[in-house]
Amino acid sequence: MAKQSLFRSSRLRLSLWYAGIMAVILSLSGLGAYRAVIQSNWAALEREIESSAGTLHDSVEPLLPSNEETVKILQKIFPELCLVGQPCDLSPTLIQRHTIGVSDRSTYYIRLFNYEETLLGFSPNQPAELPATLVKTPWQTFKTEDGSRYRQFTILLHGDETGSSQANWGYLQIGRSLAEFDAENTRIQKILLIGFPLMLAVITASSWWLSGLAMRPIYVSYQQQQQFTANTAHELRTPIASLLATIEALQKVPPTSPEDANTLLSQIAKQGRRISELFTDLLNLTYIEQTLVLPLQRCCLNDIVSDLIEEFSELADGANFQLASHIPERSIDVMGNEPQLYRLISNLIVNAIQYTPEKGTVTVSLERRDRMAYLKVSDTGIGIESDEQKRIFDRFYRVNRDRSRQTGGNGLGLAIAQAIAQAHHGRLTVESQLDKGSTFTLQIATADG
Ligand code: ADP
């Protein structure tokens, strides 16, 4: 229960961190994108105003009137301009014809000032609250009482220098409403405000799912570790209990004859050996699994197999079964760790011998195909059911516990063999039929492969 909540809280922490980091990245990139869009819209808007002002400036400058009868002549150039102190006509103006067209009448407005900064005229759509005074800063943004914003550009107008008019004639102001720009701005803000929490919810959910995925192998490995510890304790308990029982019996009823004493002592020695073998196997397994890269050298599989056949042939003769081998003359070399390869192959041969009844045959064959070495250990023994075949490589797994115990097996032989094969980037597989026999195949790349 405690470990469940530990994994749950770790998963929660992991997903919150993930969601938090994603939220920061998203908000930074969202804000960046928002700023970039706003800035580019703003720059486009200013470019548009500036180019309208430039076009208008170039069009009206040659037509500018001299000082006298300014008002009359201005009315000729800008027939629709409202002149200060006179009634207004709302038909399209010169500025609209020159720059932006009739459709934009409500968007743009112009104002004309003389060089003494007195307002001469203005287009009828100019914001009502605009003061008649001139602010000469080229760019200006202002807000009217109803909250509408405007951007305005002021440009100097030069008169005809050959005539009586002065070089600097006055000022032209062209401005436009920022309503569209502000509306676009608000629209983006709304999308971000609604989109961000939605995205955050999706990210939180997916980070919870992802952290679950990430934790799963750790959880499985943790469970395996727990299982392994429990199995080790269980495996040790039996020989230790038996050892203690024998010693207690020896203490209670001391042996009367040297033969009895010898029998009891050899029982103690047998249990001691079992414990010692178990520890050796456990240490081997841990060493192979923890050593990321085993020290490798060129090894001749032919020699290893020949040595082992020789070693086990005496046992085979005694147990009354046949031990055969098919080793090719051409040597098959692999890059491997020789002691570990010896251990792997001998585990397979020992198993084949152990699980093959009298008069059976155990055959070890070696061949090379497509730059791969194939080592097969076949027997005509009891075989393994197909359901069990998947599990026999698990630590401490024994198909038939009682039988296995009789043979002295602790269920670690194939787990060690598999770990060694994997440390050599090889594959160890089994094919077996119940009561017919089994074939274990080690597939490993050759050294010159
Ligand atoms: P053990 O030390 O018990 O032999 P192993 O890991 O070597 O443990 O083998 C696991 C199980 O696989 C054994 O209990 C046995 O039932 C089965 N097994 C292994 N090799 C053979 C074989 N050649 N024939 C039949 N069964 C086998």
Order of helices and strands: HHEHEEEEEHHEHEEHEEHHHEE
Dominant shape:
rod-shaped
Radius of gyration: 48 Å
Q: Indicate the proportion of strand residues.
A: 15-25%
If helices are DSSP runs of H or I spanning 4 or more residues, what is the number of helices?
A: 10
How far apart lie the N and C ends?
Answer: 51 Å
What distinguishing features does this structure have?
449 residues; alpha+beta; Heat Shock Protein 90; 10 helices; 19% strand; binds adenosine-5'-diphosphate
Describe the structure.
With 449 residues, the chain is α+β, with helices and mostly antiparallel strands. The chain has two domains: 2-185, no CATH class; 291-445, Histidine kinase-like ATPase, C-terminal domain (Heat Shock Protein 90). Helices cover 53% and strands 19% of the residues. The protein has ten helices and 13 strands. The protein has helices at 2-60, 70-77, 94-100, 179-252, 258-290, 301-319, 338-354, 386-389, 401-406, 413-423, and strands at 82-83, 108-114, 119-122, 139-143, 149-158, 168-177, 297-300, 322-326, 333-336, 361-369, 372-379, 427-433, 437-445. A six-stranded antiparallel sheet has the order 1-3-2-6-5-4. It has a five-stranded mixed sheet with strand order 8-10-11-13-12. A two-stranded antiparallel ribbon has the order 7-9. The longest helix is centred in the middle third of the chain and has 74 residues, at 179-252. It is rod-shaped, with a radius of gyration of 48 Å. The two termini are 51 Å apart. Residues 99-103 have low confidence and may be disordered. Adenosine-5'-diphosphate (ADP) binds at residues 351-352, 355, 379, 381-384, 392, 397-400, 404, 409-415, 438.
